[in-house]
Amino acid sequence: MSTHTCPLCETDNTDFYYKDKKRAYWKCQHCDLVFVEKTALPSTSAELSEYQLHENNADDDGYKNFLSRLAIPLLSILAPQQRGLDFGCGPSPVLAQLLDEAGHQMTVYDPFFEPDESALEGNYDFITCTEAIEHFHQPRNELDLLNRLLKRKGYLAIMTKRVIDKTRFANWHYKNDPTHVSFFSDKTFAFIAQSWGYSLRLVSNDIVFMQKN
């Protein structure tokens, strides 16, 4: 039995998965999450330094097109004038801007760049989480929070690249970002949907929609 507790389902049924030059990864046999061991989690200051290297902004058409891959299918299922939260919006909340321009009332939250916790006191018709969930050190806690904030029948729209198998993981650039610490598979999202009471739709290889039952 491993001593590395899964940060998603909190079981100890985890096995060594992979090790590179910088850190080791473990895999939960219950929920299928792949995660880094605690000693490899970045400090808050290291996270912020890495995030400040990102150059995503509203004037970058490529970045807007990237986010549109989530925004377009989400807009196709939302009723008009819904209230949404962009959780983990980063320094430039471009997705919130796109959704706001489409007629929805957007609130943003990011622990580093938009840390106003009053955003975490409302109830939302939908929540977006783009390229953020892989940064969660304790994904169970964050998912509990998102579930509390989301209204019944509301949508949780997630963008993150998914784990396929160990061979591809070994050559996967996504794991090389030191702030990426939790990696989800199709099975992991199925576990999340079942555990928190959502219906699951795998929109594409990096986009997942879940509706709260």
TrEMBL record:
Gene Ontology biological process terms in this record: methylation
Transmembrane segments: none
SUPFAM superfamilies in alphabetical order: S-adenosyl-L-methionine-dependent methyltransferases
Gene3D superfamilies cross-referenced by the UniProt entry: Vaccinia Virus protein VP39 (3.40.50.150)
InterPro entries attached to this UniProt entry: SAM-dependent_MTases_sf
Domain of life: Bacteria
Originating organism: Alteromonas ponticola
Keyword presence, Methyltransferase: yes
Name of this chain's protein: Class I SAM-dependent methyltransferase
Keywords annotated in UniProt: Methyltransferase, Transferase
Single GO MF annotation: methyltransferase activity
